[in-house]
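Anyone have tokens for alpha-1,2-Mannosidase? Sequence:
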Amino acid sequence: SGVGRNWGWASAGSSILAEFGTLHMEFVHLSYLTGDPVYYNKVMHIRKLLQKMDRPNGLYPNYLNPRTGRWGQHHTSVGGLGDSFYEYLLKAWLMSDKMDTEARKMYDDAIEAIEKHLIRKSNGGLTFIGEWKNGHLERKMGHLTCFAGGMFALGADGSRDDKAGHYLQLGAEIAHTCHESYDRTTLKLGPEAFKFDGGVEAVAVRQNEKYYILRPEVIETYWYMWRFTHDPKYRQWGWEATQ
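Reply: yep, here.
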């Protein structure tokens, strides 16, 4: 039809952070390959807009209305709807040979807000990343969010205030939590989402969260943690899931 439109379910026709916020790495590279700056200019316009906008508690909501330029529903997730935005800020910095300091600053600022408002430790000592919804923390972590362990490890080098060790440890803690979500199931395959509430830890509660569809995020984090630490347990955990 030639008419652009957003998903009907996406908070009053909003665009999704993980989609519009992830274009910059590919489009910047496309301008590099073609010599045409049009792709670079388009995505840098998005980045500049995001930098200027007020963010509740420093967090990026998952929805942005393209007509009003305002955030939609105040829902922040490091998993579905938000995930690759954070990952690609970091990778844009790496792809630029660490020259894209703007992307690195946006990543660092976002991670600091995520640590402050979304990352918690359960009564049983498991570190998890919850979701922020309308001013409240939902103590639920999605399988998609498990990629963040590897992202924290990847971003440890170059982190602020010499916090490389801190972020490598945080990556290890997320990897451990996600492994527990696998290990606590009958089939040893992790659920789509798992809770940390009411005495329940790293376990799916709702029936519509008790399924596994070959998502790669947990194995991805194992791979990154193996590459950075060479701890054999990550290979063992990966092989357990493969079996």
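The chain has nine helices and eleven strands.
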